[in-house]
Amino acid sequence: xxxxxxxxxxxxxxxxxPRYGREDFLVGPANEAAYALIEAWPDWPDSVLVxxxxxxxxxxxxxAIWAERAHAWTASAAEVGSDAVQHLVSNGALVIEDIDxxxxxxxxxxxxxxxxxxxxxxPVLFTSAAGIDALGLATPDLRSRLRLxxxxxxxxxxxxxxxxxxxKLFVDRQLVVDLSVIDALALRLDxxxxxxxxxxAELDRDALGRGRRISRPLxxxxxxxxxxxxxxDAEA
Length: 236
Prior knowledge:
The protein is α/β, with parallel strands linked by helices. Helix content is 42%, strand content 9%. The protein has helices at residues 32-39, 59-70, 85-89, 107-119, 140-148, 159-172, 179-188, 193-210, 216-225; strands spanning 48-52, 73-76, 94-97, 124-128, 151-153. A five-stranded parallel β-sheet has the order 2-3-4-1-5, with helices on one face. Helix 1 (32-39) runs parallel beside helix 2, helix 6 packs across helix 8 (193-210) and helix 8 (193-210) crosses helix 9. The protein is elongated and about 60 Å long.
């Protein structure tokens, strides 16, 4: 056992509350069309909108921006049961998150919600990690209604947006890193904001546990450990 090894700190995995303000949303080519449509409210082409994008792409952030603008309630698709529909649409505007998650999804209730929302002029924003045809919906009428609704997709981020998001994720955790670290991560990280979020969280835990700042060698070591790039040269 190495007696001179630096003591490791306990890294508590405390929940990090994301900031969902309008000023916190970073706009780039991947999401500017979706952002513009949210900002265009209430001048939408329809009272129902489906917002799609991979995990961590910013769907919930955009939905929160719209919810504030439209004074909407937010619920997950799993919370939409037949006995909750009337209450949900009574507020006047509604966000339904994660309709792609079939666990607990009540298709009959969702179809009823769409009908009641239109009757009561209640706009609804749905979020989904996949397009409607990929959801495996067993209810033809629900599938047809959602297909007819306008949809907008958030695409994979470009290099500039990925770098900006990495900076924001570090700032949100009150971490200061060199630009060389940002460049190294952006060069090797796949184009997924969800993966960027997971990586920054792992770097935060690792740096805290080791009692070290997040350097480029440490960042590359964590990248390798998480399997982001199997061809990284050892620099740690």
